[in-house]
Specification:
This protein is an alpha/beta fold and 374 residues long. The chain has eleven helices and 14 strands. The structure holds P-hydroxybenzoic acid. P-hydroxybenzoic acid binds at residues 36, 67, 77, 187-188.
């Protein structure tokens, strides 16, 4: 074995330590990040294939299941799953049971896309909703393929309690589906992020203007979700420095400091931070030291974005993270934990089968031993 491999092995033991997260003792610090795979069936119901897909990856300390719309209005892409009716709950239940049968833990990511949608996938072909009627750059993925995003409709003040109720109801459904917890998706330019940022939120009511007002919806949603689950089974994902979803803020430092100060009241299990630009550069200009958020936050810090085992080990060792979430490597390595433990080579995911399609590129990536995982 080359010396280099040995040294990675010797160093990266912290990844494989068990760690307490809320009420759960996770068997390692490796988290499967939420990954959109676009294989849900009619009615936004997770497919039968998803049972095997998640079970194959149950050796992760924690799985965060893919972004899942909390309502028909929260949907932004074709073939993403939902958590807003009993049929979906029944399908998710089979998935959580399969993961639990392998002693894994699984959270669900609660998602409302806001303006990143299209009338053709909205109820009654209505306009997508947003804090303000500002058109995002980019394309929607619809039944007709990629089409330009449209100008959304600004939510009326009296609609805001209804948005919070969508999250509360979805949190209850997630509980009924047997998840171990939920992650509130406040990242990547979707609805909650749209409210946080001054580029997308130009409201003049109680939900816009000052930082306190822009953070209000996130606080109300967190209150509703933790009322269902308790704070210690709820995580929250942010992407303070990302431009994903055509988002930006003039003062992210002050904004996200305030976010964390507010979140601390809920004693959440973890803060999941996409470091840098989502799926891209970890170091971005004009940013700030994310460690300020880590120091301020009173729960576990879960780091994500472009990690490999060596960087993960380095950041854990330096005390800069408690958990590391891996996205793309989990697509093509169902046994990622074992491969990292043994410093084995990783296989690369095929971009053609990342989104949509059948079981190919989804449930047929082999384990190290060459077999397709059970
Ligand atoms: C996507 O479906 O492309 C997607 C979903 C959730 C994210 C990012 C991307 O946070």
């Amino acid at each position: 074995m080359p010396a280099e491999t040995n040294s990675i092995n010797a160093n990266n033991e912290r990844l494989f330590e068990s760690v307490q997260l809320g009420p759960y003792l996770l068997r390692n610090r490796i988290v499967m990040a939420p990954l959109t795979r676009s294989r849900a069936t009619e009615g936004d119901v997770p497919s039968e294939m998803a049972i095997l897909y998640y079970a194959q990856r149950a050796s992760a300390g924690l799985i965060i299941a893919e972004a899942t719309q909390i309502s028909p209005q929260g949907k932004g892409y074709v073939f993403t799953p939902g958590i807003y009716n009993q049929t979906q709950v029944d399908a998710w239940k089979k998935i959580t049971e399969a993961v639990h049968a392998k002693d894994g833990r699984i959270y669900l990511q609660l998602w409302h896309v806001g303006r990143i949608s299209h009338p053709s996938i909205q109820p009654n072909n209505e306009l997508p909703v947003a804090p303000s009627a500002i058109t995002p750059e980019g394309q929607a993925y619809t039944n007709d393929g990629f089409v330009p995003l449209v100008t959304p409709r600004a939510l009326r003040l009296e609609e805001m309690p209804g948005i919070v109720e969508q999250y509360r109801q979805a949190a209850k459904y997630a509980l009924a589906a047997g998840f171990d917890g939920v992650e509130i998706h406040a990242a990547n330019g979707y609805l909650l992020d749209q409210f946080l940022r001054d580029k997308t939120n130009q409201r003049t009511d109680a939900y816009g203007g000052s930082i306190e007002n822009r953070v209000r919806l996130l606080v109300e949603v967190t209150e509703a979700v933790t009322a269902v689950w308790g704070g210690n089974r709820v995580g929250l994902r942010i992407s303070p420095l990302s431009k994903f979803g055509d988002i930006w803020d003039s003062n992210p430092q002050a904004l996200f400091t305030h976010v964390v100060e507010k979140l601390n009241a809920f004693k959440l299990a973890y803060l999941h931070v996409i470091e840098g630009d989502t799926g891209g550069e970890r170091e971005v200009a004009g940013g700030f030291d994310l460690q300020i958020l880590r120091a301020l936050f009173n729960g576990a810090y879960m780091a994500n974005n472009g990690y490999d085992a060596a960087l993960a080990d380095h950041r854990l060792d330096a005390g800069k993270a408690d958990l590391i979430a891996f996205g793309r490597p989990f697509i093509s390595n169902p046994d990622l934990v074992e491969r990292m433990r043994t410093s084995a080579p990783l296989s690369e995911p095929d971009p053609k089968t990342m989104y949509g399609g059948d079981g190919h590129g989804y449930i047929d990536y082999p384990t190290l031993s060459g077999s397709v995982a059970a």
